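Repro case for the chain-ordering regression, as requested:
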Amino acid sequence: MSADAGTLIAPSAKPAAPDPAPAAKVVMEAHNIVKELGTGARKTRALKGVSLTLNAGELTLLMGPSGSGKTTLLSILGCILTASAGTLTVAGHSTAGLSPEELAQLRRRHVGFIFQSYNLFPTLTAEENVRIALDVRGERGSEAVVRSQRALQQVGLRHKLKSFPANLSGGEQQRVAVARALVGAPSVMLADEPTAALDSENGVAVMQLLSEIAKDASRAVLAVTHDPRTIPFANRVLRIEDGLIVGEERRAEGVETVHQLARNRKRKANA
Amino acid sequence: MTFTLAARNLFHDRIRLAVTMVGILFSIVLVAVQLGLYLGARNIIVAMIDRSEGDLWIMAYGTKNFEEGQPISMRERFSALSVPGVAKAVPMIVSFTDWRKPKGGSTLVVVVGSDAEDGGLAPWNVVEGDVSGLGARDAVIVDKTYLADLGVEGVGDTAQIGASRVRVSGLTDGIRSFTVTPYVFTTLNRARSLLDMPADNVTYVLVKLQPGADVEAVRAALRDKVPGSEVLTKSEFHDRSLMHWLFATGAGVALIGGAILGLVVGTVIVAQTLYSSTKDHINEFATLRALGSSSGYIHRVILAQAALSAVLGYALGMIIAMTVVYLSERTALPIVMTPGLATLLLALTIAMCAISALSAIGKVMRIDPAVVFNR
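-- result from build under test --
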């Protein structure tokens, strides 16, 4: 990852004491979510009654083995799949009874996605890849261009506005994807294995970005991951197994650890 | 950005773009040629009728078209003149006969005998000589398109019809026959002589009405006066001739069928390439869905791609079609391109591409956006 990777981290960042815990704003609430996949004899329960809340200002990790239901849960929380049972509220809006088009509207208004394989449009420049997230919301014109450029600046890619994905490194592509998720100022950002396709350095940089983004008091970030290196960046870790949340760990020191890692990395680079 | 995305998707794969363009080009050129031939044929078939000044045509019962008229009695003309509202009743002779070439051999021609000074059918687009020259001995006027067929080279050359000598006194440009049988214009009496037709026979009587006369009323009166003949309005004879040559003979059906075939083939090719392009970009469409785009947004991307293909293909196709039209100008059946046909072709191309987009839209609408997490 380039030097831009640390744009969001103050150069003289000192370990910040965790904020005094104000009443956390709940931006997403899932209650007793059940998801059945397949039909007839092949019907299986991918989720068996998952309940969780995502609070603004927090980076939550969802960890679990393959087949545990992580991606299914992410799809439901992102209003891409609908639950077989249970309720979901996104930014105060219940998803019950919404049509696919209404769910799409909820997604574009309140949910930002980051995908494992970036899912950038290969024929669009970095700036256009970000702007398309505004375009689908009907936000166009020079204001959209400025906001897209600002989002890319936030992720340290101001100098890559006109670059096509093929000319960007994996880390840069994922940062474009982060900017795309960020540009619409969503209430919830959902990341699917955001570091899986990245090397260690780029993975850390992307997690730094996500932890910074999660500091916004109006936004929650949930990342599905297998990668234990991401744990230090999280405020909270949820563990899922066999379609059920089986553990939750609060990490008040999470933010501090991020800065410590960044400092260590800088020291190592200087040496 | 829908247009940007559509354009980039379109130009991203040059080979597929080329295939799409070939499909549209093929379709447009084929449809343009077929419909252009159809229009050209229509113009040729009805040119004589449309050029005449007759409001009503008196002819033998069952006459199917201009060239195949049967003799009627000259008395019909005098009967017509006695009908109130009739200003003129001009006799005309039209018949197939043999033209004997000066250097041997013969060819079939259609002799058109009419006296222009009486308000009969006169040749138009005369490019050499003039209509008044028909008054000269043995004079006939032919179209320059058919000079080679007639075995003559130009004005002054002679040939023979029946036992009589004819001399080319003038040339027209663009008076062609749908049957590719050259028209030979001459006077009424000379035509009768050349065809060895009895003195009281004619083929048609062209009736010119007095200003303000009611066509239907005059026609009804004429029917009473000439019960042995048929009385048609100009537009009825026009339609009957078209119907005969284009549909009874199957020629028009073949032309229209060719145009439809062109559209079908073009639609299939464009649909196939658009579908395949959409399939290649399916993950991008799934990403759009995941980002929350509406169905309408995705439809617009695909339709913009189709419309862009249509406009590009149309522009290139029209260049080729216009070249073909230009090359056909001197042939016996020139292809006609009119602003109306050009507009119709554009509309057909856009419709063809829009229909082609349906399969791609169907494909995209079946995407499960959850696939974005499975890659």
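Ordering looks correct now. The radius of gyration of chain B is 29 Å.
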